[in-house]
Write a structure and sequence with these properties.
Radius of gyration: 26 Å
Shape: globular
Number of helices: 14
Order of helices and strands: HHHHHHHHHHHHHH
Strand content: under 5%
Number of strands: 0
Structural class: mainly alpha
């Protein structure tokens, strides 16, 4: 008896979900939609309000569309009244130098801890894990005293030192990833006559690109959004980062110029949104691949 051959145009029947499964799927999607709206709605309201005049904002509803989406007066006023360029320069300067120090010092320390056995190695690992459990805000008093003694308060170097020197999570990511790289690679390089530094620089560092990309992404997001550190260590206008820029603008601008502040919020948020849209694949793959490797 011959088995009937299904036609090429036929499609496999979809499995029907049970009512309970349909309910929970609908519940999950509803929660995701509500969570997305809670994040997107304030951004849309700020973008919408940034094109309104003060009179439009006072008389109308927050959700009303502006009379003209080409009204750029609020953006021009914010650029004139606030040091936007200087704040972005300070933020970029702090981010770049912090990432360079984190990458070099962190990968070197991870290479030593992962590859060498020496007295006190386990104590160092325990100390790192213990420090990760301590809330950073509890150490701010002592850190401030140290920065004050070093004369780094009101300078960008205080932020650079704190962002790069106290980053235990990045070091832990480097160590975990390096443990997944075979030690035989190091031994082969040693047989060829390479020094430990050459092994680190020419072999280990290129192999750690996924972990480095993960740390760069995470630290860039953290530094760009951080408010506590700039508020404590760089309160002067000339040293302000973008987070302090909005804080000081909210004090300087009156309620009648609220649309100008909304324009400032859009200006600060726009670079992060554009970077995420262009690099979303790299961000997701870097975080998932580099952070869970090994």
């Amino acid at each position: 008896m011959t088995t009937p051959i299904p036609s090429l145009g036929s499609r496999p029947k979809r499995r029907r979900l049970s009512p309970q499964k349909q309910f929970w799927n609908g519940f999950h999607y509803t929660i995701l939609i509500l969570a997305s709206l809670s994040v997107v709605a304030p951004l849309l309201l700020a973008f919408n309000s940034s094109f309104k005049t003060p009179l439009e904002l006072l008389r109308g509803s927050r959700t009303d569309l502006p009379n003209s989406m080409a009204n750029l007066k609020n953006y021009l006023d914010f650029f004139e009244k606030q040091p936007v360029g200087l704040s972005f320069y300070n933020t970029l300067f702090v981010i770049l130098l912090s990432l360079i120090i984190i990458t070099l010092v962190g990968t070197m320390a991870a290479y030593v801890i992962s590859r060498f056995r020496f007295p006190g190695r386990n104590l160092i690992m325990i100390a790192y894990v213990t420090v990760m459990a301590v809330p950073p805000i509890t150490t701010q008093v002592s850190l401030y005293q140290v920065m004050l003694t070093l004369g780094l308060v009101n300078t960008k170097w205080a932020l650079i030192l704190l962002y790069s020197g106290a980053d235990i999570v990045s070091l832990y990511i480097f160590i975990v990833y390096l443990n997944s790289i075979s030690v035989e690679i190091d031994e082969s390089a040693r047989i060829e006559g390479a020094s430990y530094f050459q092994i680190y620089w020419k072999v280990i560092l290129p192999l750690m690109t996924p972990a480095i990309s993960t740390v760069v992404i995470l630290r860039t997001i953290y530094i760009y959004n951080d408010f506590v550190m700039p508020y404590l260590y760089t309160p002067r206008p000339g040293q302000s980062t973008v987070s302090m820029l909005l804080f000081k603008a909210s004090d300087a601008l009156a309620s009648s110029t609220e649309p100008v502040l909304m324009a400032g919020i859009v200006i600060v948020i726009a670079p992060a949104i554009v970077a995420f849209l262009f690099l979303q694949r790299q961000i997701v793959s870097g975080v998932t691949r580099g952070a869970v490797k090994g």
